[in-house]
Design brief:
Blueprint: H1 7-13, H2 40-48, H3 62-75, E1 79-83, H4 86-97, E2 103-107, H5 112-121, E3 128-132, H6 135-141, E4 146-152, H7 164-173, E5 177-181, H8 186-189, E6 199-203, E7 217-221, H9 223-234, H10 243-254, H11 256-277, E8 281-283, H12 293-299, E9 307-311, H13 315-324, E10 329-330, E11 340-342, H14 354-359, E12 366-370, H15 376-389
Parallel strand pairs: 2-3, 2-4, 4-5, 5-6, 10-11
Antiparallel strand pairs: 1-7, 6-7, 8-9, 9-12, 11-12
Helix pairs in contact: 1-3, 3-10, 4-9, 11-15, 13-15
The structure holds pyridoxal-5'-phosphate.
Protein name: Trans-sulfuration enzyme
GO cellular component, one term: cytoplasm
GO molecular function: cystathionine gamma-lyase activity; pyridoxal phosphate binding
């Protein structure tokens, strides 16, 4: 596949052509744990890394490889490496690139699982983890021990924007690498490597898969680092993506641009109409009053994502609103073709405790909507009737 083709073309074609063995047009699911070497000398060369080839599916598999190549093409990076989940990807990055005595900085808030992994697990291995409020806070505290800076933009669930170029320059100035969790934006909206990010990770469970039927993760970046991750974080920890899941992700990614257009258009319409009521606090980077709007315009391809959050004032109103919605399923996860809703303070972010929740703006009235690809007018009618039922 010619990598100069446009994004939508690469979403369809990158990573696979006709199957060389059979001519199959769709990517076959290579359901095999192991691969015959052919002869002993080739086995030796494969294990020595002198010859490239698949030999065990924990390390690589043709269906999984096609997914990796498609994602690398869309992120515009040299390579990509798949994992069994987003958390598997995050674990592999941390376990491969850090050692005792190192420091990791992150820009809060992060996805709850990532923050748990950083704060609960790494200190046990002698790695210091610290949280920065914003790039200015980061600037004064980076040390020569800081190896990684980790961030999400827009962040979950308040959709705060972070300037990738600014943080990449700060991190590089201190000799650290920038890791960006690009799950919320997807490469259709933001390609962090273009702004200096060293590694880009995804929960492929969300928009990349897009249909709520698969758990997966992926890291994109330079080939040397990803080889290191494959030979250590993947081989030794073993959170490997299976070929069936890779097939679903490949299939989902072909329509990523089309789905993202629909998610973004629906979310934008809903955010504008919610804001126009004037009685609710609405979080959406596409609204001119959003504090990150100008940055989002520069960093997000002129579209602003499929997540809208709103503050209904208190927990009771949020609860009534969520229970009254018909088209939005109350569930964790996001980025599915179906609309989903959640109450972060009482579910995904419950463990953070009230003080941290308030510091991050995750107030009791906050509801997060993952806007699906249903007709936005139907979604809006549902939201309006649910707002009428919510005690105000
Ligand atoms: C879901 C999610 C993760 C974790 O991914 P899993 O596939 O559930 O392991 C990490 N980061 C973000 C932003 C997410 O939304």
């Amino acid at each position: 596949m010619d990598n100069s083709a446009r994004f939508r073309t690469r979403a369809v074609h990158a990573g696979h052509g006709l199957d060389p063995a059979t001519g199959a047009h769709a990517m076959p699911i290579y359901a095999t744990s192991t691969f015959g070497y052919g002869d002993a000398a080739r086995g030796q060369r494969l294990f020595a890394g002198e010859e490239q080839g698949h030999f065990y599916s924990r390390l690589s598999n043709p269906t999984v490889r096609a997914f990796e190549e498609k994602l690398a093409s869309l992120e515009g990076t040299e390579d990509a490496l798949a994992f069994a989940s987003g958390m598997g990807a995050a674990s592999a990055i941390l376990l491969t690139l850090l050692r005792s005595g190192d420091e990791v900085a992150f820009l809060a808030p992060l996805y709850g699982g990532t923050e748990g992994l950083l704060q609960d697990m790494l200190p046990k291995f002698g790695i210091r983890v610290w949280e920065a409020k914003d790039p200015a806070d980061l600037r004064g505290r980076l040390t020569d021990r800081t190896r990684l800076v980790w961030l999400e933009t827009p962040s979950n669930p308040t959709l705060r924007l972070t300037d990738l170029r600014e943080v990449a320059d700060l991190a590089h100035g201190a000799g650290a690498r920038l890791v960006v969790d690009n799950t919320f934006s997807t490469p259709y909206l933001t390609r962090p490597a273009e702004f200096g990010a060293d590694l880009v990770m995804h929960s492929a469970t969300k928009y990349l898969g897009g249909h709520g039927d698969v758990i997966g993760g992926v890291v994109a970046g330079d080939a040397a680092t990803l080889l290191d991750l494959r030979l250590h974080g993947l081989r030794h920890v073993g959170a490997s993506l299976g070929p069936f899941e890779a097939y679903l992700l490949l299939r989902g990614m072909k329509t990523l641009p089309l789905r993202m257009e629909a998610h973004c258009a629906g979310a934008h319409l809903i955010a504008e109409r919610l804001a126009a009521r004037g009685d609710l606090k609405v979080y959406y980077p596409g609204l001119p009053e959003h504090p990150g709007h100008d940055l989002a315009r520069r960093q997000m391809s002129g579209r602003f994502g499929g997540i809208v959050s709103l503050d209904l004032g208190d927990f009771a109103a949020a609860q009534q609103f969520l229970d009254a919605l018909q088209l939005f399923t109350q569930a964790v996860s996001l980025g599915d073709v179906e609309s989903l809703s959640s109450h972060p303070a009482s579910t995904t972010h419950q463990l953070l405790g009230e003080e941290v929740l308030n510091a991050h703006g995750i107030v009791p009235g906050l509801v997060r909507l993952s806007v699906g690809i249903e007709d936005p007018e139907d979604l809006w009618a549902d939201i309006e009737q649910a707002l009428r039922q919510a005690r105000r």
